[in-house]
Amino acid sequence: MSDPFVIVGAGQAAAQAAASLRGAGYDGGLVVVGDEPHPPYQRPPLSKKHLAGELAGDRLALKADAFWAEAGIEMRLAAPAAAIDVPGRRLALADGTRLPYARLLLATGSRPRRLALPGMELMGVHVLRSRDDVERFGDEMRPGARLAIVGGGYIGLEVAATARERGLDVTVIEAADRLLGRVVAPAVSAFFHALHAVRGVAIRTGAGVVGLEGRERVRGVRLADGTLVPADVVLVAAGGVPNEELAREAGLATADGILVDAATRTGAPDIFAAGDVARFPSRRYGRLVRLESVQNAIDQAKAAADAMLGGSPSYNPVPWFWSDQYDAKLQIAGLSAGHGAVEIEGDPAAGPFAVAYRDGARLLAVDTINWPRRHMEARRSLAEGP
Predict the structure, then answer these.
(1) What is the Cα–Cα distance from 250 to 183, expressed in whole angstroms?
(2) What's the fold here for domain 327-383?
(3) Is the pTM of this model over 0.85?
(4) What distance in Å separates the CA atoms of residue 35 and residue 33, rounded to the nearest whole number?
């Protein structure tokens, strides 16, 4: 009997790769190894409907439990991977199990960035990435509680919206001079700043954090200017870090992610990587990129499945992302880094609007607010590029 294909990680990319392998006719052994006790589930609702209590945990599953058994996919859950023996083609698990593999896909995802701040260990301080994180954090989201969110990016603002709708007193603390500053134009930042402010969220931009204060439990966030923001609960939402350690310790090349080629291959024989953890060459943008998005997890996993079966895919996606906050939907097509001109379409104060980012005559990306048709047009336009 030949060795199985093994997938490390049990998130969106892992689930898609396993399904794609079976869909393409691969009928050999297939093992999915995950460190959480849950089968693969959706993560975007964690900061929105699941946190709000509108979507139960069992409805987050990407596939029905029966799918995995019927497809002959072995699920090894609550089984963290510990090491890769590249010459011996074996994956060691934390419990001492050693799994031989014919092909190995690393879909280990990312984790929340933990800030090196005094007080991070206090009770009431949370990050948000998993179902278990939501369970711990959600238990403290009581109406009237004071929630301080450190970070004004997607997760921080989505949680702020959910928390306000649940009746919490919310303060968002952002070190940069505007919200979402790393990913959108000032006009979009201003729109979301006003959207949250009118809903009662206190927003502190240009505000560095030097520590979290309290005895056993957090009682406030100390800012660099000396101000103490009172808090009963703190969420640190400071971005994500790729889970690249398993690959790096095995001698694979990493640089803020596992380095792969356009076919998702690493530098080691028969080892591939996909999803949040993979940094790949984008022909469209002429540089290495790492994408944390559902689109990338699904599409790159499909490419990885093809490559694992001997194909030669050339992964060159049009990235797209979205964020739901109150009744506003932000949709982003493309990557705006390196843009020059910015063009605003529509009226940010009166209705749906869009922001197009260009490098000379070349379109790089388009942000849309409550304008899905324009978003789809942007994706089609970008797909026609290189």
Answers:
(1) 33
(2) Enolase-like; domain 1 (3.30.390)
(3) yes
(4) 7
